[in-house]
Structures are given as C-alpha cells and as structure tokens.
Specification:
With about 400 residues, this protein is of the alpha+beta class. It has helices at about 20-40, 50-60, 65, 80-90, 95-100, 105-110, 175-180, 200-205, 220-255, 265-295, 305-340, 350-370, and strands at about 135-140, 145-150, 155-165, 165-170, 180-190, 195-200, 255-260, 260. A four-stranded antiparallel beta sheet has the order 1-2-6-5.
C-alpha cells in the first residue's frame, strides 16, 4: 500500500501549554537542583568526590521511579513530561546532564514494549544512582556501525538487528558485548562519559533474541520506538542547553559595557539577542508539540494503514531533530561571538557549550538519518530495507 508521505498536522490549539500542578512541582524541584548543583559546574568543574555526591542527590529525585511507577496501573511520565525534566538538567554542562539521565531513552522504550524484565538490574532506580546505566546508542552511517555514549564500559545497550526484512531491537547484555563489538574507536571523552564509534558483528547480532514488538505501536516497531525516544531525549537536552545559553547571554549583555553603555543597548547586539531568543523558544515549542503528540495510537485506530500512521508519527520527529540540531549549533556559535574576546576563554560557559554541543548534534543527526528508514518515499513498502539497515 502506498505510503501517505504527508503528515497529520499538529494543531497547537489542541495542545495545552500550561503545566498542571504535578508537572510544575516536578519542574520546581529539578530547577532548584540544577541551579544549585549543575549550573556552577559550567565555570568550576566538580572534583570526583563532589560529582559522586551530586549523582547521589540526583538519584534521590527519583526520576527512575517516576518513569516506572511502583504500582501497576499508575501512568509513568509521558514523553512531554520527560522532555520538560530532561531539559532542566541541561542548565549545567551537557555531559553532566547526559550522565544523570543517560538510561532514559532505553528505559522508556523497554517500558513501552513491556520488556523491562530483560534488564540485568531489576530496580529502575539503580540506573539513576550512578551504579548502573544503559548506554545511549545511535546507528552509524554505514551498516554494522554505531555510536555509543556510555558511562560504564560494560553497560548494556540497545542495538537494531536486521533479520529477514524486519528490523528489531536487541538488548545486548554486558557478557555478550565482546562477541558483538568488533572494534572501538574513541571519539571524545565527555566528563565521565565516553563517545565511541564501534563496528558490530551483524551476523552475531542477528541471532540475538529480539525484543518483542508491542503490536507495532502506531505502526512503529521496537527499533522505531527506540529511535524516536532517542531523538526526543537528545532534542530535550539541546533545547535545555539553548535556553541556559540565552539566560547567560542576556545577563552578560546587560552587565558588560562597551562605549560607555551595556552591550544590550547596542542595536546590533539587541538584534542578535532577539534572534537567539526566537530560535530557542521556537525549538522549545516545536519540541513540546511533537512530544505531546507522541502517544500510542488509540485502539480504534489499530485498523488504520500502517504506512500512513507510520509516516504521521515519524515525520514530525525527524523535522524536530533536524531543526534542533541546526538551532543548537547556531546558538552555541552566536554565544561565542556575542561575548567577543571573552567568548572562547576556557572555564566560561560559552566555551564549554561550544566544545560539547557538536558531539550531541552529531548523535542527533545520525539518529535522524537512521529514522529516515522508517519513512519511505511514496509508493514504496514501509518496511525497513534489509540491505540498508543500520545496526
């Protein structure tokens, strides 16, 4: 059946932009934590002991318990709520925010497909306390490669496996990693995280036990869900970083003087600030709209053609990922330029943002390219192509 490539438009009038009381309380608690424990790290990096204490304090916020409630029947955090909370962590260094929330995309994917029992550690809270983690993996541009952002070298990770003409998701446990990962090439060290490009044994990966798809949520199998969750997560981190950068830029422009008046009083600087604010706010509203729209298709729509439903879910996420990657790059560059001679001084927030942002936009761009496999052009089969599937 031909794929209806056009998407169902997101009508902002159908979305509520007002936080309810529970959402506001969650945001307030995290904002206090980010303001007191994370934002200062942009200027003064924490010692190992200080960072370990910060990780323990972050675990007490119980983000893991909110992702998977203790009682059956209670709804976990929605995609929109997770994006809200993840972005708040980015008030500090991006790599610190990523470490504290690294397992989120994998856990939400496994939750949606009823596969949490496959985890080595049964207590979800362990994945936010520094003791355990699930590596963030993104398919590479070539088949059989992947980018891995990890805190522990032996952490489990999710990978896409292609068997026949279907792409499924595989949870690779630590003891199986050595037999699947052929080569590792370290790209960067980001705090206590390492970013590596790995080569995979696709034949060994294909015979791993796949995660059972949950009746194709909205026409998207487990691998598609994983890429969507990863895209939303990385977008939330970068949007949060953009807004933290805007706050710094306005503060800097209001206190730094040139020609006997604040920088913000100069028309060209004010215009640049306005452009940065519009870009950051536009990215946030787009993230909110897409995240609120990312819900499983109701049961009464289960009979809808998979191809049309598939495109309507994935295309807005891909648009979001492209937009956020471009906006985050522009704002980190503009922030350095705004600060002039002090824009790239080691130890100042602009330099830290400018150095780290490209690695996260790299991951986001590759995730978007991989997700493109689930949005076939009109008139083509909507299944991922076996000869081009990325692992």
């Amino acid at each position: 059946m031909p794929c209806r490539y056009h998407t169902v438009p997101i009508d902002p009038s159908d979305l509520s932009w007002t936080l309810n009381d529970d959402q506001q309380h969650l945001c307030d608690a995290l904002q206090r934590f980010a303001r007191e424990r994370l934002a200062p790290l942009l200027v003064n990096p924490a010692t190992p002991d200080e960072w370990s204490h910060t990780v323990r304090l972050a675990a007490e916020l119980d983000l893991g318990g909110m992702i998977l409630p203790a009682h059956d029947g209670e709804p976990g955090l929605s995609d929109f709520e997770l994006c809200l909370l993840t972005g708040i962590f980015a008030a500090g260094p991006l790599e610190c925010a990523a470490e504290l929330t690294l397992s989120t995309p994998a856990l939400t994917t496994l939750r949606e497909h009823n596969a949490l029992d496959r985890l080595p550690a049964r207590n979800i809270r362990d994945y936010f306390g520094g003791g355990d983690s699930i590596s963030l993996t993104v398919p590479g541009a070539r088949a059989g490669t992947a980018f891995v952002l990890s805190r522990h070298g032996t952490a489990p990770m999710l990978l896409a496996s292609t068997r026949s003409s279907d792409a499924s998701l595989v949870l690779v446990e630590p003891d199986a990693t050595a037999g699947i990962v052929l080569q590792r090439h370290r790209i960067a060290t980001l705090g206590t995280l390492s970013l590596e490009q790995v080569s995979l044994d696709r034949h060994a990966l294909a015979w791993c036990t796949p995660i059972s798809p949950a009746s194709h949520q909205g026409g998207v199998g487990s691998a598609g869900t994983w890429l969507i969750k990863t895209g939303l997560y990385l977008s939330a981190l970068l949007v949060g970083a953009m807004h933290a950068s805007i706050s710094f830029a306005f503060g800097y422009a209001g206190t730094r003087h040139a020609f006997r008046k604040p920088l913000a009083a100069h028309q060209l600087v004010a215009t640049r600030l306005a452009d940065m604010l519009v870009a950051a706010e536009g990215a946030r509203l787009l993230l909110w709209a897409v995240a609120r729209n990312e819900n499983p298709v109701p049961a009464q729509d289960a009979g809808a053609p998979i191809s049309g439903t598939l495109c309507s879910r994935i295309a807005p996420v891909r648009q979001l990922m492209r937009h956020v990657a471009a906006s985050a790059t522009d704002i980190s560059r503009d922030l350095v330029q705004l600060c002039g001679g002090h824009g790239y001084v080691e130890g100042l927030p602009p330099a830290r943002r400018f150095q780290v942002t490209p690695f996260f936009t790299l991951l986001l761009s590759h995730a978007e390219a991989a997700l493109a496999q689930w949005t076939p052009p009109s008139g083509m089969d909507d299944r991922p192509r076996s000869n081009g599937a990325r692992a």
